[in-house]
Input
Amino acid sequence: MEGEPKIIGSKNKIEKGLILKVSKMKPVIKPTKPHRHEGYHELIYLSKGAGQHTVGDLAYEVQPPMGFYLNLGQVHCWDFSKIPEGYVILFREEALSSYPRALAHLYSLQETFKLPEGDSSLLRLAEVFYLDFKNNASQDLLSAHLNTLIYKTIQLPLQQAAIHPNVLDEFVRFKKLVQENYLHMKTAEAYANAMHISIRKLNQLCQTATGGNAIEMIRERMLIESKNLLSHTGYPVAEIAYQLNFSDASNFIKFFKSQTTLTPTEYRAKL
Output
């Protein structure tokens, strides 16, 4: 039996008027409820702590020194077993308006990354960033800190994507369009038209950047939201199908099973 309907909570930790905020991890181990951070990206650098960090339907072991990256609207929650220490950087995309290449590189970041053992340079950069933020440094300086931190992070092992800058820019443009329109634009042709390129060119971009094609990227975004709603709400399957703009529940079930081999109800029962 499906539970009482509930919704995925949203948190806005950036005060009105700010486009960037740097803070220390709270020294608590109380589990957090699954929630989204709407409208901004999040970079987390941990020097201490233990437990789990769940992003979507993936649970990551917290094993510092390490970091996490959360894209716009991703659902996540913490369950620490040891007091965490580290830094959290929240930022809207306007914070990188002078650094478009750094913004593009965010799409090549993994959700989790290891920091080098015995090399605390990234954590020291985050600390200086934090101190300047607390001392009301100019937005130009804070944005420069963020740019440096992103570039240092993408240079970590397994993070650097060997993609030509022009290809990366076009791929980021496509990913942003998908993020903003996946509920009502569900074909590669629609995105190709919006970008004024051919479907072949769009698929080439995706193949170079990820090894997949455009329709796989579109379906992946829809699948992420499907799993979020099944995992973190009590909505009936028919209501989820409606929220995701499927014509009916049966089409949603067919889509979900084609991507996971499970029906939505089977997936929910396994959680």
Notes: Residues 14-154 form a domain with the Jelly Rolls fold (CATH 2.60.120.280).
